[in-house]
Amino acid sequence: MGLTGFLTVSAVLFTLGMVIFISRKNAIAILMGVELLLNAAALNFVAFARFTPSQASQLDGQIFAVFIILMAAAEAVVALAIALSVYKELNQVGADKLVSLKG
Amino acid sequence: MSYIQSAIPFVPILPLLGALILGLLGKKIYTKFGENVTGILGCTMPFASAVIAVTSFITLNGLDVSERVIRISMTHWVSVADLQLQWTFRYDPLSAVMLLVVTIIGTLIHIYGMGYMHDDRSFSRFFAYMNLFLASMLMLVLGDNIVIMFLGWEGVGLCSYLLIGFWFTEEQNAIAGKKAFIVNRIGDLGFLTGILLVAFFSMKLFGSTDLSFTQLQSRIDVFAQQTFFGFPLLEVIAICFFIGAMGKSAQIPLYVWLPDAMAGPTPVSALIHAATMVTAGVYMMGRVFFLYTLAPHALGFISLIAALTCFFSATIGMAQFDIKKVLAYSTVSQLGYMFLAMSVGAFSAGIFHLLTHAAFKAALFMASGSVIVALHHKQDMREMGGLLKKMPVTGYSFIAATLAIMGFPLTSGFFSKDEILWKAFIQGSPLLWLVGFVAAGITSFYMWRLVFMTFFGETRANKHTWDHCKEQPKRTVVPIAILAVAALTIGFWNVPHFLGGHSNFSSFLDPVVHDLSSSPMENFNKIQLAQKTEHVSNTENAMKPESGHQVATEHGVESGHAVQEDHTALEWGLMIASVAWTFFTGFLAYIFYMRYPKAREQIMSGAVAQKIFMVLNNKYFVDEFYEAVVITPIRKTFDFLAAFDQKVVDGLVNFAAYMGRIGSAFIGIFDNEIVDGLVNGTGWGTQAGGKGASSLQSGKIQTIIASSLIIFIIIVASVVLFLR
C-alpha cells in the first residue's frame, strides 16, 4: 500500500468534509465537517512523513499531526462556545440564518 | 456791445422758451389757470420778440448804411477739422424786414388764435407749437450760415406738419400733414444737396469753411469758374437751392401740399401757410442773391416755373368753393409772383411782395377764419352770403385786403405787383409779363367772387346758423383790422421813381441785396466781359473805351437812369393796363356773382364751360396724376417688396430654421439614445456589477466558503495550467 492510497483516503475525507461544510446548515454539523477536513490534512502530513526520503525530517509530519489534533481540540472548544452563545442569543444555530455579515 | 447785438439773440430764444414752457407745463397751466392765462402766456413771448424786432429795426435805421450788417457770434457749434460752424446770427436790412414780418404778424395771429381756438381741447398744445414755429422761423431768418438756416428750415417744416395735423383725430387732417411733410422732404433733399455741394467745393477750393453767407459771397467768383459734371457749378447749386424753395414755397410741381395744408386751424394757415413759412424759399433766394446773379440759366428755369405756378394756381382758384382753398391757391399764385420777381433779378421787388403779401394774405386768412367760426365751421362759400351786415369789421377788413391783393391803386399790392410785372417785362420777357398780367386779372376775379359770394347778396346759410352768426370778439377782429390797415398802407414804403417816390424799400435793402439793372443773362454776360477786360487791361495796361462803358453799365451808374427815363411812358402804360384789367375782371365777378347770376348760370350750362369748370374744380387732376404716376407705382413696388419679403426671404429663413430643427432633432436623438445610453449604460453596468459582487457577500458562511473554494481552485488551476 503506497502513498497514493493514503492520499486517496485523505482526498475522500477532504471532499466529504468540504461537502458537509458547505451543504449542512447546522453549525454543529459544520464543525464536524471541519474536523473531517483537519483530519484529512493530518492524514496527509502523516502519510507524507512516512514516505519522505529525507532522513533528517522523518518526524516532522507526525509532529504537525499532533499540533493539528491540539488545534482541533482548541478550535472545537472555541467554536462550540460560540455556537452555544449563538444558540443562547438566537435559539438556533442554523448557519444560513446567521447572515448579519451580509454585504 | 450795442443794443442790437445783445437783444437780437433773444428774438428766437424767447419763443423757444415759450414753446418749452407751454409744451412741458401747458396742460397743467391750462387746467389750473384756464384759457386766458395760457393764451396770454403764449402771446407774451412773440410780443416780446416783436418789441425787440421793432426797436432793433429803428436802431438799424439810425446806423450808417455801411454799418448795417451786424453779425452776432454766440458760440462754436460744429468744429470738425476745417469745418468751423458757429452759432452766428446775421442782422441786416433783409433779415430785419423778415423779422418785422414774422414777429408782428406772428404776435397778431397769436392774439387772434386765442379767439379762434376758444374752447379747444388742445389749447395749450396749439400755442406751444405756434411758439416753436416762431422760434424756428426766426432762426431761419437770422441764421448767418446755411446750416443754421437749414436748421430753422427743417424746424418750420416740422411745426407745419404738427399744425396741419393739429386735429389729428380726423384721418384726413393727419394725411394732409403727412403729405406736406413728405413733399417738403423732396424739396429739402434738393436744398441739402446744394448745401453739401457748397461745403464740398469750399473745402476743395479753399481748404476750410464756415458756410456763412458772407464767406460764400466773398468766394463766389472762384465758385463761378468751377464745373460740376460738365455743368457750371453755380447753376447746379442754384437749381438745388431752388428745389428746396420749390418744396417750401409751394411751386409747381411740389405745390400740392399747400392747399391740403388748409386742414390745420386757420391761424396756422394765416401764419405758416400764407405769411411766413411759405415765403422762406423767397427769403432764401434773397439771401443768396449773389449766387443767382451768376446763374442766369437757373433763373430762366425759375421764371418758367414761377410763371406757370402763378397762372395755373390762379385758374384753379377760380373754381373752388372752399373759402380757404381759394385763398390757398391764391397764396401759391402769389408765391409764383415772388419767384417771378426773383427770377428776373428784381430781388427787392420779390422781397417787397413777400412783405405786402404777408400783410394782406394774413388778413384774408384771419378774416376767413372769423367767418368760418361764426358759421360753425362751415367753409363752403355756397352756404355763405350777406355776411357783411352781420360781421362788419371782418367784412370790411376782408374787402380792404382784397383791394390790396387785386392791386387797387395805392394799396400795397398795387405797388408790389406792378413792380414785379414791370421788371418781368423789362428784365424778363413780355411773355412773362403777359402771364403775370393775365394771372393778376384772374386773381382779381376769384377774390371778388369770394367777396361777393361770402359777404354780399342773400344768405344761403340755414336759418339756425344765420341767426347765431355774429361778429367775433375783439381779440379776433382787432388783429384782422390792424393787418387790413397795414395791407392798405404798407405799399408806400416802396413807391417807384416814376410815381414820384424813391423806392425806399429797395434802397433800404441795397446794402445786402442788389437788384440787377438788366436781364439776368445780359447782366451775366456783362460781368464776364468786365472780368475779361479787366484781365486784358491788367495785362496790356491799357483800358479800351467801350469796356469802361460796360463796367459802368454793370453798376448802373449813368445809363441806368437813361434807360429808366426812356421807359417812363411804357411803365405808365403797363400800370394803367393792369389796373384796368383787374378792374375789368373784378367787375366781371360783380356781374356774374352779384348782379346777374343768371348770366353766369347760362354760360356755365354750356358743355365746354362745364368741362373747363370740371378740370379747374379738380385742380387739373394733378393730385390724381401724382397718385397714378408716383404714389401707386411706389405702393406697388412696396407691395411687391413686401410679398418678396414674406414669400422668399421669410421662406428662406423658415427653411433654414426648419433644417436647423431637423438637424437638432437628429442630434437630440443621438444625444438621448447614444450618449445618454453610454452614460446610463456605464451606470447600469456598475450597478449590476456591484449587485453581483455584493451577492457574494451573502453573509452565509457556506457561500463564503464555497466561493473561496472555487476561487482557490481557479487560482491553483491557473497557476498549474499557465505558470508552469
CATH class of chain A, named Mainly Alpha
Number of helices of chain A: 3
CATH second-level architecture of chain A: Orthogonal Bundle
Order of helices and strands of chain A: HHH
Number of strands of chain B: 4
At the third CATH level, what is the topology name of chain A?
A: Helix Hairpins
- N/C terminus separation of chain B: 123 Å
Query: What gyration radius of chain A follows from the Cα positions, in whole Å?
Result: 17 Å
How large is the share of residues in beta strands of chain A? under 5%
Order of strands, widest sheet of chain B: 1-2
- Major beta-sheet overview of chain A: none
Strand residue content of chain B: under 5%
| Average pLDDT rating of chain A | 87
Structural class of chain A comes to mainly alpha
Give a description of the structure.
The complex is a heterodimer of chains A (103) and B (724). Chain A has 103 residues and is an all-alpha fold. Chain A contains three helices and no strands. Chain A is elongated and about 55 Å long. The model of chain B is unreliable at 542-564 (pLDDT under 50). In chain B, a hairpin with a 2-residue loop joins strand 1 and strand 2. In chain B, the strands form two sheets. In chain B, strands 1-2 form a two-stranded antiparallel ribbon. Chain B has a two-stranded antiparallel sheet with strand order 3-4. In chain B, 77% of the residues lie in helices and 3% in strands. The longest helix of chain B is centred in the last third of the chain and has 75 residues, at 622-696. Among the domains of chain B are: 295-517 and 556-617, no CATH class; 623-722. The chains are: A mainly alpha (103), B mainly alpha (724). Chains A and B meet through helix 1 of A and helix 32 of B.
